[in-house]
Structures are given as structure tokens and as C-alpha cells.
Amino acid sequence: MDDPLLRRAHEIRLCSTGIRELETVFPEEDSVLEASLEKALAARDEIAFTRILLAASDASRSVDARLLAKGIVLLADADILIAVAVHMKGDLTDGVLKAVEARWLPRNLEATALYLGVWWCREREVPFPGALISQLRMSARRFQNDVLAWETLVAAAEILQDENLNSIMGLPAGGTSPRTISRFLNEHVAKLQASPLFILPESTPAIIASGYTVRRAAPRVGRNEPCPCGSGKKYKKCCIAKDEERLQHSSPVSGLTLEEYRQNRERYLTRERLTEMHPYELARLDPTKVSSDLLPSLVNQLNMIGEHEAVLSLFQRLDFHPELVGHWGDSVMWAGQAKKKGLVRDLLALEQYRESHDDRLPLEVRLLLLEDDAPREFLDLIERTARGVLTQDGPDADLSELAFALLEGPYPALGILVARSAIPVCDELEGMTLLDHLLKARDKLNLSPTDPFERISDRLFGPATEQAESESRELKEARDRLQSKNKEVEALNGKLRRLEEDLRETQRQQPAQPVQRSNQQKEESEGSPQPSDNEEKLRELGQRVEYLKTLLKERQVEKRELRQDLRQALGKVEELQRSGQGGSSQKDEGSSQDAEERLLGDEVPANQPIRFPQFDDTFKKALDSVPKSVATSAMALVGEMAAGFSDAFREAKQLKTRKAFFRQRVGSNYRLLFRFDSEALIVMNLIHRKDLERTIKSL
After folding, report:
1. Which DSSP string corresponds to 458-503?
2. Rounded to whole angstroms, how far apart are CA atoms 133 and 294?
3. φ and ψ at 663, to 5 degrees?
């Protein structure tokens, strides 16, 4: 580490005192300070990057917001992002948009970045960019199951007041949500503007390791036992102080400090640790030191988080690995979807992999390589593919592939029209996925968030005329709920159309107001205004129309959630069919319930005190993976249990083999695992009932 500022950033502690120490060694020129930040960014050095940014914010030093385009992913949490972003110069909205568009971010970090983009435009009274509105709409569709990220987007929507975004989120037009998150965020931003370090402790915290399962960096030794170093002294008279210092830097590997672990992370790498690592940690790994059996998992992880440059570096640095040929093909596809034409060409230049790869390049990649340099060939390829679809011959005869490529490419409007023709001839799961991409394209184009083809799609994939006997109960229930919601939406649409027609007819009958009135008429009018019957009817009809529009927004949001539930159920059935298991019959359902009962013991007494709820990280992650309706029910149930409501503990039972833990039903298919003491209700996990036995064994 040849930069003294980066070296010093690693030596100080992440606390107010340490950050202020770092400020004392800052260079005088802002350009030199930014050069150090650029070095930290290039090295994916999250420690130096975060601490220097915090120190620069506290010292009122000028740092350009463009650094956030690649730097947001290095920041530990949303609070730090706000603390540094509100003190930066330049176009903050552009910086956060590039970060969100370029690579994967944790949901709360992405939502906070978008909120900051909206906040910056409001503070400077500049127009909200169309790209920002489009990204907010796309994020709103994805974050419905993440409570914290969703609330942050609600705060952004309240500032933005975009009708289409409000419609997607089910918020009233022109109004605000009853939630307090908007006020909280505004106050939080104001505090961080005044003092960016108020989120940090004043001095070194007792434990500074977080984000992984911590293993002791020093052995557990009794104070009065002989010191393990062999000095013959008691431990408290010898190495205890040194070991307590090491414990503050404990790592995921027993006996190693965090710094020791980071210096040779590849040696201790496992599949589990790969999935837990931050994007910048994965990008820093040396692929030549990673075990060959872990390389496929590493490539997959890097692709999913958008670290395509690190994927290219991996293939370039390694010798040819035949087992990575398929993953090379996936990497080309991922880079193509990210519109990284240069990276695609560099990957294709790896001749050994290209020669060994049997499959043709995805249509989306071939179009990407042609779209700017060869427009005629670009159109010819689209025409050839379309003809292949119509004649059903040739390798390009795939209508859904053409639709996906156009939706994600430079012609999304054309993609929407092609997708409408593809959905009816797709299988059910692919058709619903294509519909999601169609709606995403509408968000990109800032079109109305609902597409007329949604109604046709829901009829196609609603109640199947001939459902397989092996279809699971969960899938049937999902179909029925979606069909019921479709009927409700259709009925509301019919009422709205009739009311709007009545409103137009009443407006036509409204007499024109006289241009001039006598003084006597003016005095009578000003003294006691008397609205006509038509005016009263207009007001009433207008109110009813607005009410119905609000109801429709709410029902559309519910319908999207139900469609997502159906898609998840279809995915499970398809996975079971691929594995040869088929669906679950009602008999299987009953035997599954019997198996669950064998795992359970006594019922929980209904008379319970009030307790403070606490949430394990596993439960927080589980909320992301379940349908929003399940997450909402689970949170409501936790609130009732914490309040001591006796009804909330009905059907709650103790686990037979883990008597400190309890299980409660959330709907028919999900189970809440919890434990409690006299003061706290600790919520451990939210799982599907089929995973109960496996989860119990892991407790």
C-alpha cells in the first residue's frame, strides 16, 4: 500500500475520534485527496474508501459525487451513504443512478441511493430526470417484500409525486402515506448534514467485527489459568491484554484476526463463505489461489452481482478449465445483458472457451454487437429471426428469445409489441416471466404501469382448463386467488367506466357561466353562494371517480403480488417435475402435516406478558424470499405476540427436540420459529413448512 493516506485509514478505528485523527493527515489539495479515493476504489478497498469519505465530509472537503457510481457498493450501510453523499459536490443524482444501473446493490442501499437522488433534485429545485423515475418504478416492483427498502421508496415517492410510481406502489395520487418514514428520513438527512459523524461511536466500540459469523481470534482461557504462551505466569498477568485486543478483530476463522484472514482469504474459502461475502470482497479474490472446485461458484456469484470486469480477469488469469466452458457462456450472456460490449468482445477473444462452447451466442448478445456498428445487419438479424419464427425452421425460430432481446435492448417499445405476440404461445412460467419484462420495459419508457395485455395474460394463465392431477394445492390456491382478484378488478373497471361516462354527460349538461353579471347578482352570489344541482352532482361524481381510481390502484398492486405468488408456485412445480418427483397430492399434504405434528410438543400457554420483539438476521433475510402477503401476516403476528394477545398464541407449539424454541403457523404453508424470555420475544426464522424438520436439525 504505497499511498500514506490509505495506509493511515487502515490504522485508525471506525469511530468519531479515529476519523478526526485521519483528517489531520489530509493533503491540502482536493485533487490529491480525490486521487487517494480513486486508488481505494480501484483496489476495492472498502475500509480506506469509507473512512476517507467520512473524514472528508466531516472536514468539509470537496469530493465529486461521480465517485459514487462505483463506490456505493463499498459502503457498509445506508447511514454511511447518506452521511457522505449529502456533502459531495457535483450531480449526486447522476452518481447514484449510475451505481444502481451498473451493478447489484443490497436492497436498502439501492433504495436509499434512489431516495438521495430525488432529495438532491428537490433541494436544488431541478427537474427529476426521467431515468430516475424509471428506476424508481422498476425498484418498486422488486422491493415489495422488503419492508425497510419499501418504506424508503415510499419517502422518495412522496417527494416525487409521480402518478405512475404512485400507481405501482398503491399510494394515493397527490397525497402522502400515513407512514412516518418520510419525516424520519428528512430529519436524519438534516442531522447528517450538520454532523456526518453522529452515527459513529465517539471511541472504539467493544466489538468491531460484523457481517459474518465471528470466530474467536484468541483461545478461551480462564483468568487464573496458566498462560498458553508457556511463560509460567497466570493468564491475567501475561497475555490477556494482547488477546483482548485480538478478540476485537475476530474473523470468520478461529484463531485468526480479520487482517490475518483477509491476507489469505482464498485459503479458507468455502461455498457458504462465497455466498456471504460482499461484492467488493469477491472481486478482490485471486482466482489463481481459489480451489478449482469453487471456481464455478465464484464465476456465478460475480456474474450475479454485476462484477463482470472481475469475471473477465478471472478467465484471463487462469489456464483453460474445461469445467468452466458453460460458465464462460453464461458470463457472455450476463455481460451482454449489462450492455458491456467491450467486455463481451474480450470474453469472445478467449478462443479456447469459444471453440469448446457448442451453443450459439444468445440473440441478445449478437444484437448488442451489431446495434451501433452495423445497423443494417442488426435489422437483418431481427428480420431473419422473425422469419424463422413464422416458418418454424432454422436455429433462430424462438419468438420469446426475440422478445426478451428487444425488451432489454435499444428498442423496448418494439419489444413490448413482440412480447404481446409471444406470451400466448409460451408455456405458463416463461409467459409470466416475459410479462414481467414487458412491464419493466414500460417503466423504462415512463409509460402507464399497466399494460392492456395483462388482462389477456391473466386469462391465459388463470384457471387452466385441464390442470394436471399432480398440481400442488399451493399452485391451485394461487390460481384461484389471482382469478378472484381479476374478477374484482374487472368489476371495478366497469364501475369506473360507467361513472366516467356519467361525469362526461353531466359536464355536457352544465350550463355555460354568463360572462358579465349585474352588481346585484354579484352581491347575491358573494353573500350566499348556491351551487346548482348539476354542480353538486359533478362534485359527487368526481369524488366517486377518484375513490374508484384509488381502489383500482390498490387492487392492481395486490394483483401483481398474486401473480408473483403464482409464478413462484409454478417454478416449484417445474423444479419438482424436472427432478422426477411430480406435484404434491392431497394425500401427500396430509402426511406432511402428520410428519410436522410428530416434531411438535406442548402448546404455548395463551396467557403471555408484553415483550419487546427482537429479530434474528435469518428472519430478516427470510422476509425477502416469501410473498409479501406472508411477510405482512408474519409481521402482524409478531406484533400481536409481542403485545401478549392470547389469540396470537393459538396453535403455537414447543419443538420436541429443541424445547427452547417454538413454532407458530403463518397461513397454511409457512412457519414462524421463535423463542422468548421474561422480557423479549426473539423471532428466529420464517420458513416453508416442508423445511421445518431440516431447520430444526440446524438449530
Report:
1. HHHSSS-SS--TT--HHHHHHHHHHHHHHHHHHHHHHHHHHHHHHH
2. 40
3. -125, 140
Give me the residues of the chain with pLDDT under 70, please.
1, 103, 173-181, 204-213, 358-359, 392-397, 458-476, 479, 483, 486, 509-534, 547, 551-561, 563-564, 566-594, 629, 668
Element (H, E) at 118: helix 107-124
Q: How far is CA 187 from CA 121, 181, 196, 199, 594, in A?
A: 17, 10, 13, 13, 52
Cell digits for 115? 431516495
Report d(CA 8, CA 4) in Å as an integer: 6
Angstrom distance (rounded) from CA 576 to CA 582: 5
User: What sign for the dihedral angle of Cα 557, 563, 565, 568?
Assistant: negative
Contacts of 427 (CB under 8 A, 6+ apart): none
Q: Could you tell me how far CA 519 lies from the centroid of its own chain?
A: 64
pLDDT digits (tens, 9 = 90+) for 364-394: 899 999 888 888 998 999 998 888 888 765 4
Q: Determine the Cα–Cα distance for residues 432 and 464; give it in Å rounded to an integer.
A: 14
Q: Which amino acid is at 437?
A: H
Cβ–Cβ under 8 Å, residues 599 and 662: no
CB 187, CB 214: distance < 8 Å: no
CA diameter of the chain: 111
* 8 Å CB contact between 662 and 674: yes
For residue 622 the three cell numbers come to: 427470510
Burial of residue 612, with CB atoms counted within 10 A of its CB: 0-12 exposed, 13-18 middle, 19 or more buried: exposed
